[in-house]
Design goal:
About 40% of the residues lie in helices and about 15% in strands. The termini are far apart. Helix 1 packs parallel to helix 2. The radius of gyration is 17 Å and the shape is globular.
């Protein structure tokens, strides 16, 4: 049986990815990364129990702050508009999933991203409204060669249907939007806490 390390965030997409992989015959190990202080892993824990898969929660807050948050703020200070999701997927999420893959002697890594892989290349998902290939654009060839995106061939409505069929508690959970480490806070107010406003040409 092939073994896959899945990034299990506790959202409906990664949860359904886990259900699909298990149905396909993989041994699934869910890895939930704690990147921010206010993260609650309860939904991920419940999903893992419902699907009866091995599950681990790993604290990566210090590295996430260094690799993603600090770079995000540094870019803004330099007048660059950053995309923290692009940086996170390449330098944090997929990189750490690969680390766990080697640690558990697994064969693949997987996430709940809306994307497809064919011939070691990245392709847009079937659901173009949810397509996330832009956020995966800097993945290395090694990361792509080991990655599975189980929901890339599905529409979002189909993903939620599968979640209901598998009695997953997150079936109707609201989609996460925006920058994860800012959350519901006002974006400008967040930046003001770290960057002093100064006059200048636009």
């Amino acid at each position: 049986m092939k073994k896959v390390i899945l990034g299990l965030s506790g959202g409906v997409d990664s949860s359904v990815a886990a259900a699909i992989l298990k149905e396909q015959g993989y041994e699934v190990i869910g890895i939930t990364f704690k990147f921010v202080d206010n993260f609650d892993p309860e939904d991920a824990v419940k999903v893992a129990k419902t699907l009866d898969i091995e599950h681990h929660i790993i604290d990566y807050r210090d590295i996430f702050k260094e690799k993603v948050i600090d770079k995000f703020l540094s870019d803004y200070k330099s007048g660059i508009t950053p995309n923290p999701c692009v940086i996170c997927n390449k330098n944090v999420k997929l990189r750490f999933l690969l680390d766990e893959m080697y640690k558990f002697n697994a064969d693949y890594i997987a996430t709940g991203h809306y994307a497809k892989i064919k011939d070691n290349s990245l392709f847009k998902s079937v659901d173009l409204n949810k397509d996330q290939t832009y956020f995966l654009c800097q993945l290395t060839q090694n990361q792509i060669s080991k990655a599975l995106f189980p929901i890339g061939h599905l529409e979002k409505s189909e993903v939620r249907k599968i979640a209901i069929e598998n009695n997953l508690n997150v079936a109707k959970k609201k989609d996460s939007t925006g920058v994860c480490f800012i959350g519901e806070r006002n974006f400008k107010e967040f930046l003001k806490n770290y960057i002093l406003a100064k006059p200048g040409n636009m």
